[in-house]
Amino acid sequence: MNNYTKSIDFSKYSSIHIGPTLDVLVINEIGDYSKYQIIGRANNLLVSNTPPKFAVLGEEFDYIEQKEDKLYVGCATKSGKLLSYAKRNNLANFEFLGKLPGNLGGLIKMNAGLKEWEIFNYIDSIKTKDGYIKKEDVQYGYRNTNIDTIVYELVFNISSGYSKEMNELFTKMRNNQPQTPSAGSCFKNPIGDSAGRLIEQVGLKGFSKNGMSFSKVHANFLVNNGGGTFEDAIYLINIAKQRVKSEFNIDLQTEVIIF
Asked: How large a percentage of the chain has pLDDT more than 70?
């Protein structure tokens, strides 16, 4: 299948419900797309009215194939689809994907997970335009990697033993997060502390600017209560950074990606 473009309304498509309607390239062939920014399901994106050129992986990269003790998963595959596959085939270590939205490409790029359970723990290698790269040759850490190219496929090491208890634990942990439209965690947790605690300490839990606010449920979630704009979101991000810096001398790093 060839590449094509499609129109995406980011005020509906992105999880925080902010952004213009743009023509986006749909990639179905491996190649060099260095002029484009890959966006996946736009679950942790904050898009302005003047973003770069965007692209998404297309149908050709939505697949799951099991060969011996490895699982080959295309990066346009949704996390929920992979979790269902693991459940059906009694595979261990995919339980953390419960209620973790997004496509596999986005999850690997930011080493997504919950607390110490991270996607990089379970992979063998990634496939880019230059072929397969072993996990050991990628720099990765808490919520970040040095991947600066498109990842088309993930290769997982697999073992049997799907755990219903683990799945319930992750679901329960995520049910404590706000259900209002958001881009997930707004800031990364500083070492030995939590961004939510710091935001709460400086009096910003529930603090709003027009339609945007730091959630009353969890202070590190920047939520769109309806009609929130990019400018409102940036205002809140900046005020949180300033207050936390002046009160605790900590530089908060955004986890949400701003275009």
From this structure: 96
